[in-house]
Write a structure and sequence with these properties.
Blueprint (H helix, E strand, L loop, with lengths): L7 E5 L4 H8 L11 H8 L4 E8 L2 E12 L6 E6 L13 H18 L3 E5 L9 H8 L3 E2 L7 E6 L4 H7 L2 H10 L4 E6 L2 H18 L7 H10 L7 E7 L2 E11 L2 E9 L1 H5 L2 H16 L3 E3 L9 H11 L4 E4 L4 E3 L3 H16 L7 H14 L2
Parallel strand pairs: 4-5, 11-12
Antiparallel strand pairs: 1-2, 2-3, 3-4, 5-14, 6-14, 7-12, 7-13, 8-9, 9-10, 10-11
Helix pairs in contact: 2-8, 3-4, 6-10, 12-13
Amino acid sequence: MKTLAPGYVVQIDRRGPNDWSEILLRFDDATIYQTWSYGSVRWGQDHLSHVVLKRDGEVVGAAQARIIKIPILGAGIAYIPFGPLWRLHGRQKDLGSFQQVVRALYNEYVLKQGLLLRVIPNEINDDTDMIHSILQEERLVWRESIPSYRTFLIDLSLPSEQLRKSLDQKWRNCLNRAEKNGLRVVEGFDDNLYNLFSNIYKEMREHKKFFELVDINKMRAVQKDLEDHFKMTIMLCEFEAEPVSAVVCTAIGDTGIYLLGATNDKGRTLQASYLVQWRVIEWLKARGCRWYDLGGIDPEKNPGTYHFKAGLSGRLGKEVRYLGQFDGCRNLLSSFLVKVGDQLRANSPNLKHTLEELIIMASQRMHMTK
């Protein structure tokens, strides 16, 4: 086991929801995926574990993990999406703290608990490879075959006029028309607005017959559980008091994220989605966010959405990929169970089983082959 560097101390599962919220507010790289509410609603509170790293008494790193263990066997996975957190607000990036929090995670979940540690860091795959190198140095292996998160980022530090001029010409023309169509945009985070968004979403789903990647009902439950300063914001566009388009976005840390969107037939005719997205940019800028993440993109499978987001990103935005998935494990049983669970999911991409169910299925398959 690698010991932590002098001055660093790790705390495991010694924080409650209120303390955890205060910790998240310290970090620019915090997202909704590391909130206690998201974890408890999506995975169940009994499956959460929290790591806090201190240096000389100050919190400098943190991570919320989803823990899945097979009863009796004790094997399983510790999964950390969009983490660990290490970029303190108003401070220079300290790669030393990043390395120490990764080491603490490996020590706890791999060496002490015998789990497979899966980390999907909230880090862009840019020209530098320092983060990648640190993860490998701390015995986490990059899963090159696993597609990484791909998106557009808009730099919100630029003036609104400059961002608007940067829009693709066709996109800007649609925005100009939308602004003349008598549309009204309201914002908020109450359940009534989410319900109106859900109605538009269901109407759009019936029209397009797409496969749902996100359960909007679970996200609604997350919304109800979140503290006010972490709640998602709903931008709802109306025409003559009728909801026609909506966006659900989140702004925790220095980045706003486009989570969900929906537009009905009338909204598409009125170019409502263009106006809503522009209002999201204005709202995020006013909130002090540095970046706007336009959500996942796939130009091959979903070219229409890709071109819409590319037009919004404009000349000054950038298309990025995140680092991807890193795994670390020393327990052969944990490695085997997670591998079989991954294979089950890969062979049935539309399978709605949870990761926990897949690993349990893998455990059952193992016993059947004995």
